[in-house]
Design brief:
FAD/NAD(P)-binding domain, 4 domains, five-stranded parallel beta sheet
């Protein structure tokens, strides 16, 4: 039995335990612990229990755990939904931080870099995903095929393996990772990708590389041999400009350039490279070219404010000496022989918003085209694949994707996700893989998939913001610019992450919205001795017991709960 800790308390000069005659409010309401949903979890496309991971570290000492035990628990909290926290800790666009209630006090918690810290810790300590794998349950006999070893396919395979399914991944390339291998290694080291993929495969997931579905094996063969097929082919094609002359030998697609560099190939770029585009792919290509010794200019048809790339990546590119030519686009590539030597460009201005609400770039009236010399051109614009024809790439010509019907396709037993369903970022791809696995598992076992329910979400107006001590947000360390161009520059990571003490301090900034954090407020403010404090060796949030027979319903415990955990009913 847990040991009771019963003490008399004095508050405001009155002894605790007062009853009639004290002037207190008396109601029939009684306190209950009622966990609620943190807004960061709702904001996360994957549904990560961000609060659970942060408090595992931030409150480790309070709960009698060591630092290592706290971080290990945080890893398994993240890994339930995201098997690649070190990867997404470097790539995610931080949707969770946009919802964090701490932003209304002194800055959102740096969730993204905390996740990276936890992921890196797991790699360093060799933590396995095996503890999260369930024993195969009835109805999970047979195998499932996953086509594509990018983030969507890996996520789906992982979640299916967790549920006890035997999974085989068919990957067209020589290595798994998909478009993760197109991210510049100074942003995403290959050792991180390799380690997190290996951890998934160690669950028993079979990987078959060099297998192009539709050529080495047909989709019909997979449908015959596997109970379900999940198609997660990436968008490896790339949109190009309408400029004439782009077939020149020194004009590259951004993905092609990164593939060649990833294979260790030497690429002749010259000293006047123009990168066309404004997303992270363009930034990666430009910064890679700079590390290879080229002078680089990014040409973007909107302004800096409209660039879809992460703002800190743009700032880092500027610090590294990369030039920008905004509100401009090429209309012709002038060739000499097989090479482009000049770009003919058009000046633009922002006009009316397009269908997505972004102001459309239009040519400046009466502005004459201008020319600029180039030694190489990199076209690194966002790909625009034909999603409806994506299944034709795996031998299913004419098959369409019924987006309104989850991840199912018009082919029985065939599901589609990742870029085959909707082009998006790595975070969204992992989220899609997770949801597709849940849908596949439910269909094959005859279970009803559980709809995602946010429950009661804690808004900032429900918190006692003044109760929390001020604590400014911590940012990650960055490699000095002068050190980014030393030998092996392509592989020298620029963003260095959070140090151990900083990561702990950042975790402690979490408000624990809607979840008991054992602050003792309810115990200290109760004048009825109705809140009993238990030993803190118990799980988090189970350290208080409410004796309703002593409670007068004054609601003081709920009013003084900083994180809106206590409900009166």
């Amino acid at each position: 039995m847990p040991k009771l800790v019963v003490k008399k308390k004095k508050l405001g000069g009155f002894a605790a335990g007062g009853g009639a005659g004290t002037g207190k409010k008396v109601t029939p309401l009684r306190p209950f612990g009622e966990p609620k949903t943190a807004p960061c979890q709702v904001g996360c496309p994957i549904g990560n229990d961000v609060r659970g991971a942060l408090t595992s570290v931030g409150l480790a000492e309070t709960w009698g755990r060591s630092f290592e035990e706290g971080v290990e628990q945080a890893f398994y909290v993240f890994a339930k939904t995201n098997p690649m926290p070190a990867t997404l800790g470097r790539l995610c666009i931080r949707c969770c931080e946009k919802e964090c209630n701490r932003q209304y006090k002194d800055g959102a918690v740096n969730i993204n870099q905390f996740e990276r810290f936890v992921g890196d810790f797991a790699i360093e300590k060799g933590l396995s995903l095996a503890p999260l794998r369930a024993t195969p349950a009835q109805g999970r006999e047979g195998k499932i095929a996953v086509v594509g070893a990018g983030p969507a396919g890996l996520s789906c395979a992982y979640q299916l393996a967790r549920r006890g399914w035997a999974v085989t991944i068919f990957e067209a390339g020589s290595r798994p990772g998909g478009l993760l291998r197109h991210v510049a290694p100074f942003r995403l080291p290959r050792r991180v990708v390799d380690a997190e993929i290996r951890r998934i495969l160690d669950l028993g997931v079979e990987l078959r590389t060099g297998m192009v579905v539709g050529r080495n094996v047909s989709l019909e063969e997979l449908r015959a041999q596997y109970r379900a097929v999940y198609v997660a082919v990436g968008a490896h094609g790339e949109r190009t400009t309408a400029a004439a002359g782009q077939e020149s030998e020194n004009v590259f697609a951004g993905a092609e350039l990164m593939r060649r560099l990833d294979r260790g190939e030497r690429v002749e770029l010259g000293n006047d490279v123009v990168v066309i585009g404004g997303g992270n792919a363009a930034l990666d290509a430009a910064r890679a070219c700079k590390r290879l010794g080229a002078g680089v200019t990014i040409m973007y048809r909107r302004t800096k404010a409209e660039m879809p790339a992460m703002a800190y990546d743009v700032d880092q590119a500027e610090a590294e000496g990369i030039s920008f030519d905004f509100l401009a686009m090429p209309i012709e590539m002038v060739r000499e022989g097989a090479r482009a030597v000049r770009l003919v460009c058009q000046r633009l201005e922002l006009g009316e918003p397009d269908a997505r609400g972004r102001r459309r770039p239009v040519p400046v009236r009466n502005a004459a085209p201008y020319e600029r010399p180039v030694s190489a051109v990199i076209q690194a614009m966002i790909p625009e694949p034909d999603f409806r024809s994506s299944l034709s790439r795996v031998g299913a010509a004419g098959a369409t994707i019924r987006w309104r019907d989850g991840f199912r396709t018009s082919l029985a037993g065939v599901f589609a996700g990742g870029d085959a369903n909707k082009l998006n970022l790595a975070t969204m791809a992992i989220a899609q893989g997770k949801r597709a696995a849940e849908e596949i598992d439910a269909e094959l076992t005859g279970a009803q998939p559980k709809p995602a329910e946010a429950g009661i979400v804690v808004g900032k107006d429900k918190l006692k913001l003044d109760w929390y001590k001020p604590a400014e947000r911590h940012e990650h360390a960055v490699l000095p610019v002068a050190e980014r161009f030393a030998e092996g520059a392509l592989d020298r990571e620029v963003n260095l992450g959070l140090a151990r003490d900083v990561a702990v301090d950042e975790a402690k900034r979490c408000f624990s919205c809607g979840r008991c954090m054992d602050c003792d407020n309810c115990w200290m403010y109760c004048q009825d001795q109705a809140v009993v404090k238990l030993e803190k060796t118990l799980p988090a949030g189970e350290h208080y017991h409410y004796k309703h027979e002593l409670c007068t319903g004054c609601e003081k415990c709920a009013e003084e709960c900083p994180c809106w955990y206590i409900a009166m009913r």
